[in-house]
């Protein structure tokens, strides 16, 4: 059965120069989309991924990551648009790097597509009415 997981990977310094994500794709038939990453050689790294494939392959891939000291955790934060608070000012649209927030024309309503959101959080501080909320 195909599964999809949004996960956060924490890399130890010794693993940041290894082709770990490549191996997930090549050896375990997992499809990945990197949503956010901060990985530098010989420093701790962080990566947020959409990872999908067969459940058995996902479990084997997760075990591979653990053997290399990579910690996995589910993505437990999410961005939510509070439509009751939103005044459709559009301030968030300009800072959204993935176009998860867009202006609908001609109504000029702000639309939010959570499937496009990478939980970068840029929209939260720029919203003057606090309609964009970071949930844990």
Account of the protein in words:
- The protein has 136 residues and is α+β, with helices and mostly antiparallel strands.
- It folds into 2 domains: 2-74, Alpha-Beta Plaits, CATH 3.30.70; 78-135, Alpha-Beta Plaits, CATH 3.30.70.
- Helices cover 19% and strands 35% of the residues.
- A hairpin with a 6-residue loop joins strand 2 (31-38) and strand 3.
- The model has no long low-confidence stretch (mean pLDDT 90).
Concise synopsis of the structure shown:
This protein is of the alpha+beta class and 136 residues long. It is 19% helix and 35% strand.
Kindly estimate the percentage of residues that lie in beta strands according to DSSP. 35-45%
CATH class placement of the largest domain: Alpha Beta
Helix-and-strand structural type: alpha+beta
Number of strands: 8
Sheet of most strands: 4 strands, antiparallel
Average pLDDT number: 90
Q: CA-to-CA gap between the ends? A: 28 Å
The residue ranges in which pLDDT falls below 50 over 5 or more consecutive positions are: none
CATH superfamily of the largest domain: ACT domain
| H and E order | EHEEHEEEEHE
């Amino acid at each position: 059965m195909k599964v999809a997981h949004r996960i956060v990977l924490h890399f130890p310094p010794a693993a940041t120069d290894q082709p770990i994500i490549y191996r997930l794709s090549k050896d375990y038939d997992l499809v990945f989309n990197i949503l956010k990453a901060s990985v530098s050689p010989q420093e701790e790294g962080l990566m947020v991924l959409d990872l999908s494939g067969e459940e058995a392959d996902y479990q084997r891939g997760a075990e591979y990551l653990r053997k290399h000291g990579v910690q996995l955790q589910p993505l437990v934060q999410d961005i939510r648009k509070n439509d009751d608070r939103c005044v459709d000012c559009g301030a968030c649209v300009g800072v959204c790097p993935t176009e998860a927030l867009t202006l609908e024309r001609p109504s000029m309503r702000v639309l939010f597509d959570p499937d496009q959101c990478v939980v970068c959080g840029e929209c939260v501080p720029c919203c003057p009415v606090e309609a964009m909320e970071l949930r844990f």
